[in-house]
Design goal:
This protein is of the alpha+beta class. It contains 17 helices and 24 strands. The protein has an 8-stranded mixed β-sheet, with helices on both faces. A hairpin with a 4-residue loop joins strand 1 and strand 2. Helix 4 (about 135-160) runs antiparallel to helix 6 (about 245-265) and helix 4 crosses helix 16 (about 540-545). The longest helix is centred in the first third of the chain and has 23 residues, at about 135-160. It starts with 19 loop residues before the first strand and ends in an 8-residue tail after the last helix.
Length: about 600
């Protein structure tokens, strides 16, 4: 017999009754029924119930075992009484009578219990992650992640892609986040960087004549943490193709991502048609560039109904350049209680409030209620109702000013309204391509022009488009939104050197700096670079959606905490003096 096990803890059933077996695993739970001990033994595959009484030669030893001890047992498979069969377990028809015991590893007092559904502080869970990972829901989450990655790989190979690995130690690159720098021992005073993405390398793979590339790629960004973003590193399905248009990329990746959601979505509906929405329309309709289309609410501009109206606040706002009034329809939200609650929500978000109108049945007809209705009069109110397609029992909420000042809150309000009124379909994965991103943005403090998205994208209109106002230039850039999260970002790349130089010049990078920082790509583009494009899908975020959790750390095996600390391995840590001397570095004391 094998040194540790003849079967896993999920394999035994009624067909094994009478056999002598060997199992190894962790003590999940111990139950003492007055001289008869029942132990649930757990391994990665499942649970088997063990039985031990005074007839067992190792009863005294079994009495000593505690939760999470790692043990090996030999025993005889017995059928459970029919009334005691556990139909929820694959091994629920049998139990194993223990005849021999070996303790493989004792467990100290546990800082968190593996058995049960107790909640523990995240700091405790991350410090003792190896215990947290023993819990059933965490085991399932990590198996899901592994299965998703395997499925992605197979689907990409089936589409004619090959997987190639790109360097982990490279040069710094402006990808929109801070680099992690790595000091060089052989070149004192110089630094490598961990790649924010394999961006330049995958483009160079296309220049090298490899038509289709993909990789399950680790990426490193020194970012501020969020619930849906790791502060240090993440993994993405990275892909690139030559001789393609934007639509070619969409048509290639949609069946891969859609297929993964169908395979692992637990029966939830997966949209087959993926809308293409411009960045400008997405901001207008949804207040975000990653809309949740499960929520059917679309915001609309209603400025004309308030211009010169009796509602002075909005009327005066509209006299200023660049302002507008936007309405959020709320089907079924037509009660003063709900309207007051949403007004309070806006105040909590830092706005003075949120105007509203709601329509109610007065027996002999419909009445528009609320302060706005009284101020602007019945004719304007009726025009708003008809534009928004609302009726009795519905409401509309209004925000005004410059869109950049209220758009974020409007988007959040749309989400809250959809959730509270039951309009959002929770049993669905809804996808939308967000296209036509602006290439550049202006820093509100300095007035400087910088890239707003991927700096290596091809501007729509090519070199000619870069001769006018940079803020009007659109790029062949695109994101895929799913249920309110960005899960893919990509672009058709800028493969023409003169366009690339000009694009960077508009963002404040001179030609000499471009040639110095991106020398490999600049040189390569002189030797027949093909048109190419691709995208990257965030694996952590996709698994987070499939696992139905809003916290990305639930689907990463060993994540950092919110302060970018690894509590288990105690990172980041202080370097030794010897390490610093070898690298020619000195750490300055904190001021």
């Amino acid at each position: 017999m094998h040194a540790y096990r003849s079967h896993t803890c999920a394999q035994l059933n009624a067909a094994n009754v009478g056999e002598t077996v060997r199992l190894s695993g962790w003590v999940h739970r111990v139950r003492d029924h007055g001289g008869v001990l029942f132990i649930d033994l757990r391994d990665h595959y499942g649970v088997t119930q063990l039985l031990c009484d005074s007839d067992s030669p190792v009863f005294a030893g079994v009495e000593k075992v505690r939760s999470e001890w790692c043990i090996r047992i030999d025993g005889e498979v017995k059928a459970r009484d029919e009334s005691l069969v556990n139909a929820k377990l694959p091994t629920g028809e049998i139990e194993v009578f223990v005849r021999d015991l070996e303790v493989l590893g004792q467990a100290a007092e546990l800082p968190l219990m593996v058995f049960g559904d107790q909640e523990y502080p995240e700091e405790t869970r991350l410090k003792y992650r190896y215990l947290d990972l023993r819990r059933e829901n965490m085991q399932e989450a990590m198996k899901l992640r592994s299965d998703v990655v395997a499925s992605m790989r197979k689907r990409m190979w089936d589409k004619g892609f090959r997987e190639y690995q790109t360097p982990i130690i490279t040069a710094s690159s402006p990808e929109g986040a801070r680099d992690f720098l790595v000091p060089s021992r052989l070149h004192p005073g110089k630094f490598y960087a961990l790649p924010q993405a394999p961006q330049q390398f995958k483009q160079l793979i296309m220049v090298s004549g490899f038509d289709k590339y993909f990789q399950i790629a680790p990426c490193f960004r020194d970012e501020d943490p969020r619930a849906d973003r790791s502060p240090t590193d993440f993994y993405q399905l990275d892909m690139e193709m030559s001789f393609v248009t934007q639509q070619d990329v969409f048509d290639t990746i949609q069946p891969v991502i859609g297929g993964v959601f169908e395979e692992f979505g637990k029966g939830r509906k997966v949209d087959q048609t993926w809308e293409q929405i411009s960045f400008a329309d997405s901001a207008l309709w949804y207040g975000t560039d990653k809309p949740d289309l499960r929520n059917p609410i679309r915001m609309q501009v209603v400025s004309e109904h308030f211009a010169g109206s009796g509602f002075a606040i909005f009327a005066k706002l509209l006299e200023q350049d660049g302002t507008q009034i936007r309405a959020i329809p709320a089907p079924g939200g037509g009660s003063r209680k709900f309207c007051d609650r949403m007004n309070a929500f806006a105040q909590k978000e830092g706005l003075p409030g949120m105007g509203y109108i709601f329509w109610r049945d007065q027996g002999d007809g419909m009445e528009a209620a609320g302060p706005l209705a009284k101020n602007i009069g019945p004719e304007r109110t009726e025009a708003i109702r008809q534009q928004l397609g609302l009726g009795v029992g519905d409401a509309a909420f209004f925000l005004g000013g410059k869109p950049e000042a209220f758009e974020r809150v409007a988007g959040k309000a749309r989400t809250v309204i959809g959730d509270e009124l039951g309009l959002t379909d929770q049993n669905r994965f809804a996808f939308a391509w967000i296209v036509d991103f602006p290439m550049y943005e202006k820093d509100t403090e300095t007035g400087d022009i910088d890239f707003s998205h991927n700096p290596f994208s091809m501007p729509q209109g090519g070199l000619e488009a870069l001769s006018g106002n940079p803020l009007g230039v659109l790029g062949y850039q695109y994101d895929l939104a799913c249920n309110g999260y960005e899960i893919i970002s990509g672009a058709i790349r800028n493969h023409k050197l003169e366009i690339m130089i000009r694009a960077f010049e508009l963002a404040g990078y001179g030609e000499a700096e471009v040639r110095k920082r991106f020398g490999g790509m600049v040189n390569a583009f002189q030797y027949g670079a093909p048109p190419h494009g691709g995208c990257a899908a965030g694996i952590d975020r996709i698994v987070m959606l499939l696992a139905d959790t809003a916290n990305i750390r639930e689907v990463i095996m060993f994540p950092m905490n919110q302060r970018a600390e690894d509590l288990m391995m105690q990172a980041p840590s202080d370097p030794t003096n010897e390490q610093l001397r070898e690298l020619g570095l000195r750490v300055l004391p904190k001021e």
